[in-house]
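Incident log, support desk, overnight shift.

02:14 A customer reports that sequence design results differ from what the structure should imply. Their input is reproduced verbatim below. On-call engineer (initials T.W.) acknowledged and began investigating.
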């Protein structure tokens, strides 16, 4: 009997022998069989198909260059807390179980069949290790981003409070508005706040985002837009106008507030002195549409395509790493929506956010 025929008939016995060899050694003693087996039945069928092909017979299953079952197995083992060493040794244990099954049934494994077992083991190990490592690195990266974001967030709040305190003291004449020391104080606080904002933004971009939808009034997404940008708008003599429909939508309010805030902040920053920023929001035919129109004079050639990449500045004279648009795009991606820019040469540009959503009528006014 050929090895592939034996394994086809004795799949359950082979897998049981493999589980007995790894249970309590490479895997916990009390791990449920379904978790212990995971994708190994599929992987064993891939081995049988490879042996059939080597014997000149058609494969039972398609033979991929990289084992999908092994990759999924590597991801599952990472989630269960297996070491990488244990994952690798599992494949050696299956090879040993196959050889032992053949010996007990009096089947001689040929050199060619040994080579097939070796090749499939290498393919399986490569797929499992690659996916295990990729998922582990992603998890470490995510944890690192969360740590950076936590520290930056905790430092940002007292810095903002300190900056506001300086402005209040200057407004009441308790702190000079001019002088080298005051200038360095104000600039230092501002630069530290900007750096912490960038650290938060980078952590968010690198960590990925998942939308958690809730019912929220569309107007609430813009509730703090004017107040947050009032100081910068007054400095640049820019007005901010809101035109938002009174409906409730099903979105991730936190993500969209951040996206709109970044877009309005950029719009105020890049608009010419005396210009106007118009923010519109509406629901129509199952989609929320948000527009932020500025008075930047239009984007230069080539900048439209680059606008949503991190670190790209729309105007080299402005400070900042240009993360706002990249963050807005990430928020829309999490909603299954899209963001685009309409260039208005000589006037400005309109950033348009579109995302699918449900809607309902606004809460009724209380009875008098």
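02:41 Re-run completed on a clean worker. Output:
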């Amino acid at each position: 009997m050929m090895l592939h025929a034996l394994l086809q008939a004795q799949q359950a016995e082979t897998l049981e022998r493999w589980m007995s060899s790894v249970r309590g050694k490479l895997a916990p003693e009390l791990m449920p069989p379904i978790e212990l087996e995971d994708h190994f039945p599929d992987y064993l069928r891939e081995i049988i198909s490879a042996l059939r092909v080597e014997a000149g017979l058609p494969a039972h299953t398609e033979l991929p260059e990289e084992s999908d079952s092994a990759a999924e197995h590597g991801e599952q083992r990472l989630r269960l807390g297996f070491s990488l060493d244990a994952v690798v040794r599992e494949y050696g244990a299956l090879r040993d179980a196959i050889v032992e099954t053949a010996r007990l049934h009096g089947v001689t494994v040929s050199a060619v069949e040994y080579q097939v077992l070796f090749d499939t083991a290498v393919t399986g190990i490569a797929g499992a290790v690659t996916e295990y490592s990729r998922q582990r690195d992603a998890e470490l990266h995510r944890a690192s981003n969360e740590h950076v974001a936590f520290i930056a967030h905790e430092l940002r709040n007292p810095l903002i409070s300190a900056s506001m305190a300086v402005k209040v003291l200057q407004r009441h004449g308790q702190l000079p508005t001019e002088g080298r020391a005051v200038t360095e104080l104000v600039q230092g606080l501002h630069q530290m706040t900007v750096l912490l904002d960038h650290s938060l933004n980078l952590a968010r971009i690198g960590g990925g985002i998942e939308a958690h939808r809730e019912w929220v009034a569309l107007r609430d997404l813009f509730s703090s837009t004017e107040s947050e940008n009032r100081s910068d708008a007054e400095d640049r003599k820019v007005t901010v106008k809101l035109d938002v429909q009174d409906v409730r939508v099903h979105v991730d309010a936190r993500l969209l507030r951040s996206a709109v805030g970044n877009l309005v902040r950029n719009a105020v920053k890049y608009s010419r002195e005396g210009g106007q920023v118009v923010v519109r929001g509406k629901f129509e035919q199952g989609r929320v549409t948000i527009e932020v129109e500025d008075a930047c004079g239009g984007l230069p050639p080539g900048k439209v395509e680059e606008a949503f990449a991190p670190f790209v500045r729309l105007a080299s004279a402005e400070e900042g790493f240009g993360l706002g648009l990249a963050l807005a795009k990430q928020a829309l991606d999490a909603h299954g929506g899209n963001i685009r820019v309409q260039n208005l040469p000589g006037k400005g540009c309109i950033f348009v956010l579109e995302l699918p959503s449900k809607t309902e009528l606004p809460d009724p006014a209380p009875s008098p």
